[in-house]
TrEMBL record:
InterPro entries: Ribosomal_uS8 (IPR000630), Ribosomal_uS8_CS (IPR047863), Ribosomal_uS8_sf (IPR035987). The keyword Hydrolase does not apply. It holds the Pfam family Ribosomal_S8. Keywords: Ribonucleoprotein, Ribosomal protein, RNA-binding, rRNA-binding. The keyword ATP-binding does not apply. It comes from Muricaecibacterium torontonense. GO terms for molecular function: rRNA binding; structural constituent of ribosome. One of the primary rRNA binding proteins, it binds directly to 16S rRNA central domain where it helps coordinate assembly of the platform of the 30S subunit. One of its GO terms (cellular component) is ribonucleoprotein complex. Belongs to the universal ribosomal protein uS8 family. This is Small ribosomal subunit protein uS8. GO terms for biological process: translation. Part of the 30S ribosomal subunit. Contacts proteins S5 and S12.
Length: 132
């Protein structure tokens, strides 16, 4: 299946699997999607991820994280910078999601990172998504 925006497709798959209470979700793997999954894992929104070497394309499998009584860790996830309208931000103007309770995933010249890390390093970039 041809997807125009793989990041948006990834976030939608995570959102749908999370609301359905699934343990894990799989999708075609790219370097960008693996980096987004790495940031989500570092911030504690997912248990982990693994890249399976399948044919014809590698598959990214993300293990979702739930709290007590299957309470969702990811309450919401939203794509910000889209292919039709890119959103960039300087280091001083990086957004705070829910007053600092959420995380913004930023694509910088030094790789994908959360807004907190980008703010401490003093670099801006493209705002990929908000997670809370």
């Amino acid at each position: 299946m041809n997807v125009n925006d793989p990041i948006s497709d990834m976030l939608t798959r995570i959102r749908n699997a999370n609301s359905a209470g699934k343990a894990d979700v799989s999708m075609p793997s790219t370097k960008v999607l693996v980096e987004v999954a790495r940031v989500l894992a570092e911030e504690g929104y997912i248990e982990g991820y693994v890249v399976n070497d399948t044919k014809p394309q590698k598959t990214l499998v993300i293990t979702l994280k739930y709290g007590k009584k299957r309470a969702r860790v990811i309450k919401g996830i939203k794509r910000i910078s889209k292919p039709g309208l890119r959103k960039y931000s300087a280091a001083a103007d990086l957004p705070r999601v829910l007053g600092g309770l959420g995380t913004a995933i930023i694509s910088t010249s030094k790789g994908m990172m959360c807004d907190r890390d980008a703010r401490t390093q003093g670099i801006g970039g493209e705002i990929i998504a908000y997670v809370w």
